[in-house]
Each structure stands twice: as structure tokens, then as C-alpha cells.
Design a protein that fits this description.
With 334 residues, the protein is an alpha+beta fold. The chain is built from 16 helices and seven strands. The strands form two sheets. Strands 3-4-7-5-6 form a five-stranded mixed β-sheet. It starts with a strand and ends in a 7-residue tail after the last helix.
Length: 334
């Protein structure tokens, strides 16, 4: 589930375009009154379908960047306050990646540090529609830049941007982000200088940070339990190496398998997709810990290591061996 704030922010960002927002809201089963309560949840399909309508009606190739510019640190609620109160930039990044479901993103957040800098990655392929994929990619990256600028001023400048789409001839991404840009990358990445990692946050407060983390955890769990896909994900995480069949998962949820399939299909999802995403998530964590590729394939229930390697590369754009080497460069291959 998502918050109505993501819809309200979008409406504010596109107000100058004069779109028929009321009609778009009705098409996803919402009213302007629904937008008045920040705690009101909306489903992921409402979020995506509203953005689909924005993209179609605006005819603006840069709509994603416009939407991202509409975000402020307060847009993220308690997560935003946790970022503000974090002791340093590294801690803020950790919070964002841990509670990515509070950022309204459809992507998996992760970051790595190497000789090229700090790379905040927006991984996965949550949308099969190329236009929507571009809109959500641009929105999230522009929001990161917008929030960074508001916290640190113009000195907060990325050193590189890697986009997981082909871009548009009508958008000057380099001018918008102030750094070199590459298209057709395996995932979306925004790079920063490593000097930022230990930069103190402007409003750091240890007590407030601890309090906000507790609230982030509670909010994240609440969103998880209100969404079928997130509930499935939560069940999978409780026993990460047990891969239930579709019928077994439905039984765990206390619903009919047919009902589970239908409700997931309403969001253009399937249990198979969710199980694959879970496997890749677990694989990433174990690869970062330096585990052997063969062992990971076995633990995650793949009949052959090659099947695991192919699935991992399809999802992430790189082989598990390469991913492991990037995250554990000092550890020998085993």
C-alpha cells in the first residue's frame, strides 16, 4: 500500500498543466476528499494507474522530472524526519534503503561504495511499460536530487547519473542533474562523491533519530500488512529459504488460491514474480556477504546453478559473480 500523499504531491506538481485531475482520480476510485487524510492508504495499482494517466494526458516527455521536483523532505513523513535527524549522510542512506517502502518508490533501493564513489541504485524492473518505467525512474531520481538540494544546497551535486531507459531527445538530463548522464544502464544509479558519507546531517539529533526509526518500523509494517503483495513478501522473509507453492502461500494467507491470483493480477502481478523477486533479494544479501554462487543457488531452491545465474542476470543486469566481486572485492572467490 502507498499513502495518498504520493497522489497529492503529483497533483501539485502538474497543476500548471491544467489537466483534468478530478477525472483521473475518479478513474482510480478516489475523490479529492480522500486526499485530505495523510494516513489514507491507496493500493499500488491506484498509484501506478494515476501516473499512467498523467503521462498520457500531459504529453510531456519530462513529466517524471516534474513529478520528482514536487517532492520535499516533509513529503516522506516520519521517514523524512528520520533523514533529517540522522547523524550523517551514510546513516540517512541506510534508513532510506531499509525503509524504501515509505518513499513511494516501486524500485529496490541499495547502495554500494567503490573507487568511483557512492552509488545509490534503484534496481529491479517493476513495470513492463517502457513509458511508465521512464516516468517512475525520472521521478525518483529527480526527487533524490530535489531533497539533497533542500538539505545541503547547490553543493549537493551528483557526479554521474546512469539511467535504465533510453531517455528522450526533448529532455536535457545533464542540465537537470548537473552531471554526466548515460542511458541504457542495467539499473538506475545516481553517484555521489564518497566525501559525503561522513557529512553530518544539518539537523542531526540522536534522540529524535531513534524515535523516528521506531516509528518508521511501525509504519513500514503497517503498510506491509495492508497490501497483499507485501504480506506475501513478509511471509517469504520469515522463512527465507522455504519456497512455498502458490497454494501453500494462499493457505498461509487464509485465502483461496484463486482469490490470491485474481487480487495480484489486478496489480499486474503474479505469485511467481513475487517469489522470483524474493529469491533475488536473498541472493543479493548473501552475495554481499561473500557466499559461494553454487551454495546460494542450492539454498534458494534452484535445480542448477546456471538457472540461478540466468535468473539473477535477467533481474539485475549482471551475473551473480560480478555482483559479488563488486560488493566483496577484497574477499577471494570460493
Amino acid at each position: 500500500m502507498d499513502s495518498v500523499k504520493v497522489i497529492r504531491n503529483a497533483i501539485g506538481a502538474v497543476a500548471p498543466l491544467g489537466l483534468n485531475v478530478g477525472q483521473m482520480l475518479r478513474r482510480v476510485g478516489l475523490t479529492t476528499r480522500d486526499l485530505e487524510n495523510d494516513a489514507s492508504p491507496i493500493s499500488r495499482w491506484q498509484h501506478v494507474d494515476f501516473y499512467r494517466q498523467l503521462a498520457e494526458q500531459s504529453k510531456d516527455p519530462g513529466i517524471g522530472l516534474r513529478l520528482g521536483q514536487g517532492f520535499r523532505i516533509e513529503s516522506y513523513g516520519v521517514l523524512g524526519y528520520a533523514i533529517l535527524a540522522a547523524p550523517d549522510f551514510r546513516a540517512a542512506l541506510d534508513v532510506v534503503c531499509k525503509y524504501a517502502n515509505l518513499t513511494f518508490t516501486l524500485f529496490d533501493f541499495d547502495y554500494l561504495i567503490d573507487e568511483q564513489g557512492v552509488k545509490l541504485r534503484l534496481g529491479g524492473q517493476p513495470l513492463s511499460e517502457a513509458r511508465l518505467h521512464q516516468v517512475f525512474s525520472d521521478r525518483d531520481l529527480a526527487a533524490i536530487k530535489q531533497v539533497g538540494d533542500s538539505l545541503f544546497g547547490p553543493e549537493f551535486s551528483p557526479v554521474a547519473l546512469k539511467l535504465n531507459h533510453r531517455g528522450s531527445d526533448n529532455i536535457d538530463y545533464q542540465a537537470h542533474f548537473g552531471c554526466p548522464v548515460e542511458f541504457g544502464h542495467d539499473c538506475n544509479e545516481i553517484w555521489f562523491s564518497p566525501v559525503w558519507l561522513d557529512r553530518p546531517m544539518p539537523d542531526r539529533d540522536q534522540a529524535a533519530f531513534a524515535h523516528c526509526l521506531t516509528r518508521c518500523e511501525a509504519r513500514s509494517l503497517a503498510l506491509t500488512h495492508n497490501d497483499l503483495a507485501a504480506r506475501i513478501d513478509a511471509h517469504l522473509k520469515r522463512q527465507p529459504f522455504l519456497m512455498p507453492t502458490s497454494s501453500q502461500m494462499a493457505a498461509l494467507l487464509g485465502i483461496a488460491e484463486r482469490t490470491m491470483r485474481r487480487r495480484l493480477a489486478q496489480h499486474k502481478l503474479s505469485y511467481r514474480q513475487l517469489l522470483s523477486r524474493h529469491r533475488i533479494s536473498q541472493a543479493r544479501e548473501m552475495l554481499r556477504q561473500g557466499e559461494r554462487v553454487d551454495d546460494i543457488a542450492d539454498w534458494l531452491g534452484y535445480s542448477e546453478t546456471a538457472n540461478f545465474s540466468n535468473a539473477f542476470k535477467r533481474y539485475t543486469g549482471e551475473s551473480p559473480t560480478h555482483y559479488r566481486q563488486r560488493h566483496c572485492p577484497a574477499r577471494p572467490l570460493r
